[in-house]
């Protein structure tokens, strides 16, 4: 958020709950800034003419969170737009210019840096990310996840610093200022290490960091009209979705309950739509393009645009001239995708979101009548299907006061202005995850619940002969549900190891199901109904595609359940009896 003054005393800005807030003009050329640092794009906002304003970059109200580096002595247009890093000098490209390089030099363009920051190289999430991104993720000096461009290693903090430096340039092109006082939004589940890395990157970029604010609180500050009561903030971006229950009292917000699911986000929606388009290309043109990385990247970029347009249009044409070639000549892609078809493809992900919302209501011990308002944030929250189910579950119409894509950055700017002018205290730190110990039976015993404000103290009395040991453990909080078929049973003793075992077993089971489908079809193909045979072939193709694309466990599980249902129908089917 921003708010700079140097002309007159006693100016004001308007806050929709607190009313007019006066600010002094004794701090000349000070700008208060709000930053929404995202996986795919970032936004900045200041207060201008008494209201928050999202600052435009060269392509609109966002800046792509993409970073690359030019080789020494390379000629680059608009060299004035390069960013400086101490390790390499002024050779860093950030934003749209970097994103445009991804088709020409995919291994040299870094994105999704928000998912890397504060993580270790051997973290399970990083292992999965390494399989999907075209750039190199390498191990840093202390075991952290770093990236490599042109043979040179960079830390996620350096990459984030470059993005923040780009945002700083955009602000200074719009505002004359010397000092930038900043509030940056972060996910609620970010660990202390991740938060500290964000602060470090901001300071290196030349910002004066006032505070990190949780994304749901920022969205609520920008959007809510409730002065006292409970509100629900539903957020969905490219990397995850979250549901938060907040208690509002004036301009003060307290998190009462929180649920984050990194397995369902815009990226998973993109993957399913991409998978469908690839199948259609194979069906229509008899060409398998999955082995061509450049073609797949071009297609993935167009598919992402299609997903966005389907939020406002009933049908969208996916069109790429000269996508690839075949024995018959060049292939132009022209496939029409309807919103209904897209909603069918992502049906199981929407069901998971629905279950998570219902689970949040149950865990928070709330009913519809307790909730005063529903706020949405993030680009994926614009999708009509998502908005419909969230509204139905929580029993309220969604607040449309602020653009969901800009709610976080506007709230961050408001928070910065309130802090600078003394109308709002700096928020206290809190525990992002629960802390506890492992019992002798391997059960987690929670001592300090997540969202507990700091400082705090808890005491646990135990046997004085108990052994204590420090062990490397993952930074996540999960609830495990055992598979009803007993195919996967695990205890949360060493989560990374057991996660790998689970994935291996799931994939073995998927391959076993594929073999079973082939065996049953080969034996009973001539007696089974045509539609059942087609269902079996489709289930087989879905499983094969899921294994080839290395989809996440939830998506694979859904494919396996569908295949199991078809397999069961095939085995139970009997020829109709003929009455004499």
TrEMBL record:
GO CC, any one term: endoplasmic reticulum lumen
Molecular function, one GO term: ATP binding
SUPFAM superfamilies: Actin-like ATPase domain (SSF53067), Heat shock protein 70kD (HSP70), peptide-binding domain (SSF100920)
Keywords (A to Z) from UniProt: ATP-binding, Nucleotide-binding
Record localization: Endoplasmic reticulum lumen
Gene3D superfamilies (alphabetical): 3.30.30.30, 3.30.420.40, Actin, Chain A, domain 4, Substrate Binding Domain Of DNAk, Chain A, domain 1
Cited InterPro entries: ATPase_NBD, HSP70_peptide-bd_sf, Hsp_70_fam
A Pfam match: HSP70
Superkingdom: Eukaryota
Similarity comment: family membership: Belongs to the heat shock protein 70 family.
Protein name as annotated: Uncharacterized protein
Lineage: Eukaryota, Viridiplantae, Streptophyta, Embryophyta, Tracheophyta
